[in-house]
Design brief:
The structure holds two protein chains of two kinds. By secondary structure, chain A is α/β, with parallel strands linked by helices. Chain A is built from three helices and six strands. Chain B folds into three domains: 2-374, no CATH class; 387-517 and 630-641, no CATH class; 519-621. The mean pLDDT of chain B is 87. The chains are: A alpha/beta, B alpha+beta.
Chain lengths: 160, 664
């Protein structure tokens, strides 16, 4: 009996071990830093190696008007840190503050989701080059301000 | 008036559910049957109350009562009736109400079904379900009230997010919730079994149909979510390992493991502890899923509101886990296995390994979701893992599952002999051997795709072989004709063969996924009249058209697909601009042309005033199999779910014995 049990424990241990190893190697090979734009800017100052790494940054899209080229590709825009007040205040107010702070210029060539827009949130992945431009090849957008509880009804008339 | 009625119904549901929980618990502790009976009647009334509450919300929407904040936020006058109905579950508050409504109805059904059964554990079941109802209704009463009023009645509402103007809105959230909520029932029965100390497998036998029901709707919810993402989000894929997708995938994985491991308990009296752990985990993960989708704590492509619900759901999740595992530890001495595993090569161990891999996969997804937070806590910098991580993990684990799906059903219980292995696997292995060069010959060289396809063939062959063997044995023994013996075989063993049909559906899912690496994608800029080629097709951009209706202005690109000189179809990918001030951005509608081999999928990125358009052309191989699989899973589930006279008789005998004991 005991021997039989041992066999099972060994089999289970092997399976879990293999899955654990797979998890470890996959994690290390696909891990990407996630930063706020300001963190990336300060990181670059003392760590030039970061230009070589793939990085993910997420923040607020500050450009007032967003235009790709005439067919909706080759986008250029700026990201800045998301602020606590995004949730509670009008987007425009928030944008005025946002533009004063540090931003990173993002270049992205491709289709953007419909939710990608000024005043919305975007997460991009790519590399931050020596010229201070972030060349993104992936873009996820979400727009926390548009359909959710940002505006109080009494503010609606003022419009954005 | 009506919204007030809705709110008052919610308040009464909350009070009644608390009453039910207390009465039922005290009644069983004191042995007062009248208290228990009163609690049960009240619990059935909860089912009615939640329906009234939901109906009032629906009425407020249809009546365009913008004095209700939730109605104002999620609909407007231009919204069609059909999407006005679906707007009731478009936001947090309505979704919570839907949760509570399903749970209230399920609870009432369970109590009616068990009026004369499981009398020793039912009071606890009632208490637990009532407490869950109490939690959700108090969330609505105190924090996110769907009937909250506005001080000034606005003239019009904000409208519904155009992404939700889609049949998926009907198919995805309700189905997912139908599935999520179902797992409250087996959880309640499992906990009741542990509290009452009646730890047989009655909780499993009683809730088997609920488990199948829940699993089925979770499957449908996930598939329809993928379908919706594919046709509406317009990025050319169907699954992005987004935290929200993950949060509905995890309960599905654990539920699948659970569904298999309870068979071992029913048949062999083993894995009792494991099953208790799995039912707690499944239910907790449905709460976790609700937490993720309803609290806005993770970065997701899904636009859900940031809400104050997170902490409450978190605490509830913690209590569920602590209670479930606490009871499990307390009852460990009573959960001894009746049998031991005999051999590594046996049906039991195939089930066990299937469970370990499914749980491993769940852990991997959970790891991916929480890794940024862990790394931030440990190293101070946030490190994320993206889709490549999940794919690299899921592919090998998925292949093991696919293999076990073929291997498990053909292997003997207890201990497989070499003769048994040879007899059962000769043909399937032969089929797989033939499949290797055949698939390679049609040009599939990617080793991963090749292996998955070969495994698909193997698993499909084992299932077909099972059907063939059963049918021919029956045909020989009874002398019925082949078709009759086939239908009788399936109909007399509904669980088994229904399960196999579900497996065929899952093989189709793997088959569809295997097409992924052969996706072709191409960005083009075209003027009207231009032709672009992709794969074996050429696509002609005929013209750009503009038109308007009450809700929106549309800019459509008319594109004709040719194969060689033959015209196949004309599709119109387009951009829509909704007139509502809240949606002043263009919405992309992709154009898709499908057959079983591949989809041609066109995303318009932008169309210039002179008609020049940017398009992403994509060929997605084997996509339709993913949607077809849903129907096969449906068929199999129906068969497994269908009432079975033998099972009914067996259960009736057990219930009769229960009653005899409790009356004695």
């Amino acid at each position: 009996m005991a021997r039989k049990k041992t066999k099972f424990y060994v089999a289970i241990a092997v399976i879990i071990g293999v899955m654990g190893a797979l998890l470890y190697f996959t994690t290390t090979s696909s891990a990407v830093y996630y930063m706020k734009p300001s963190e990336l800017i300060s990181k670059v100052k003392n760590d030039k190696a970061i230009h070589e790494d793939r990085v993910r940054i997420g923040g607020l899209v500050v450009d007032e008007e967003l235009e790709g080229d005439n067919v909706g590709r080759k986008w250029e825009f700026h990201l800045t840190d998301e602020r606590g007040d995004v949730k509670n205040k009008l987007v425009m107010v928030n944008m005025e503050n946002a533009k004063k702070s540090e931003t990173i210029k993002i270049k992205y060539d491709g289709i953007v989701p419909d939710t990608f827009k000024a005043g919305g949130m975007a997460i991009v992945e790519g590399k931050y080059n020596e010229d201070g431009e972030f060349i993104a090849d992936q873009l996820i957008a979400k727009c926390p301000s548009k359909y959710v509880d940002v505006k109080r009804p009494d503010q609606v008339e003022e419009g954005i | 008036m009506v919204p007030l009625l809705g709110y008052l119904t919610l308040v009464s549901t909350m009070i009644v559910s608390l009453y039910v929980a207390i009465m039922s618990l005290v009644g069983v502790r004191l042995g007062k049957k009248s208290m228990i009976a009163s609690a049960e009647r009240a619990a059935i009334s909860i089912g009615v109350l939640v329906i009234i509450s939901y109906s009032t919300l629906l009425y407020s929407f249809l009546a365009r009562d913008f004095s209700v904040k939730y109605v104002y936020e999620y609909s407007n006058r231009a919204l069609s009736t059909i999407y006005t109905i679906s707007a009731t579950w478009a936001g947090n508050n309505g979704s919570l109400l839907m949760w509570a409504t399903f749970l209230g109805i399920y609870g009432a059904i369970v109590i009616i079904q068990n009026q004369h059964r499981n009398r020793e554990s039912m009071p606890y079941v009632t208490t637990i379900l009532a407490l869950i109802v109490f939690f959700f209704t108090s969330l609505m009463v105190f924090i996110s009230n769907p009937f909250e009023r506005l001080p000034i009645v606005p003239a019009d509402g904000q409208g519904l997010n155009p992404m939700l103007h889609n049949p998926g809105m009907y198919l995805h959230p309700p189905t997912t919730y139908l599935g999520y909520v179902s797992f409250a029932i087996p959880f309640a029965f499992a906990m009741a079994a542990m509290i009452s100390g009646k730890l047989g497998d009655m909780w499993i036998r009683t809730t088997r149909r609920w488990i199948i029901w829940g699993w089925f709707w979770l499957t449908v919810g996930n598939l329809v979510g993928a379908w919706w993402a594919y046709y509406t989000l317009g990025w050319g894929g169907y699954w992005g390992w987004d935290p929200v997708e993950n949060s509905s995938f995890m309960p599905w994985l654990v539920a699948s493991a659970f569904m298999h491991s309870i068979m071992i308990q029913e048949k062999k009296g083993m894995l009792k502890i494991w099953n208790m752990a799995l039912v707690t985990l499944t239910f907790s993960l449905t709460i976790y899923g609700t937490l993720i989708t309803r609290s806005g704590i993770v970065n997701s492509v899904h636009t859900f509101s940031q809400s104050g619900l997170g902490p409450y759901l978190g605490v509830f999740l913690f209590i569920t886990l602590a209670f479930g595992f606490g009871m499990l530890i307390y009852r460990l001495p009573l959960l001894k296995s009746d049998n031991e595993l005999d051999s590594i090569i046996s049906r039991e161990s195939a089930f066990l390994f299937n469970n370990i891999v499914l749980l491993g996969m769940t852990f991997m997804v959970l790891w991916g979701v929480t890794f940024p937070f862990i790394s931030e806590a440990v190293t101070g910098s946030k490190i994320t893992v993206g889709a490549p991580f999940y794919n690299q993990m899921a592919v090998p684990l998925g292949m093991v599952l696919l293999f076990l799906m073929g291997f498990g059903p053909l292997i003997a219980w207890r201990r497989a002999t070499v003769a048994n292995l040879r007899k059962n696997f000769m043909y399937p292995l032969g089929a797989a051997m033939i499949a290797i060069p055949t698939i390679a010959a049609i040009g599939v060289r990617n080793p991963w795709v090749l292996s998955v396809l070969v495994l698909c063939v193997f698993t499909l062959a084992t299932i077909i072989f099972e059907f063939y063997r059963g049918t021919s044995a029956r045909h020989r023994m009874t002398g019925e004709d082949i078709l009759t013996s086939f239908t009788n075989l399936v109909w007399r063993n509904k669980r088994r063969y229904g399960g196999y049909i579900v497996h065929i559906g899952l093989v189709m899912v793997f088959f569809a996924i295997a097409g992924g690496p052969y996706k072709i994608e191409k960005d083009v800029t075209m003027k009207p009249g231009d032709v672009a080629s992709i794969g074996s097709y050429s696509i002609k951009y005929i013209e750009s058209k503009e038109f308007e209706d009450a809700e929106k202005a549309t800019q459509a690109a008319v594109m004709t697909i040719f194969r060689g000189d033959r015209e196949i179809e004309t599709i119109t990918p387009r951009k829509e601009l909704y007139s509502s001030a809240q949606m002043d951005q263009p919405w992309t509608r992709v154009g898709v042309r499908s057959n079983l081999k591949e989809d041609i999928y066109i995303i318009p990125s932008g169309i210039d005033a002179d008609g020049t358009g940017g398009f992403t052309l994509i060929i997605n191989p084997l996509m339709q199999w993913l949607w077809v699989s849903g129907f096969v899973v449906f068929l199999g589930t129906m068969i497994a779910y269908w009432p079975d006279p033998t099972e009914k008789r067996r259960l009736a005998a057990i219930y009769a014995r229960q009653e005899a004991i409790s009356e004695a």
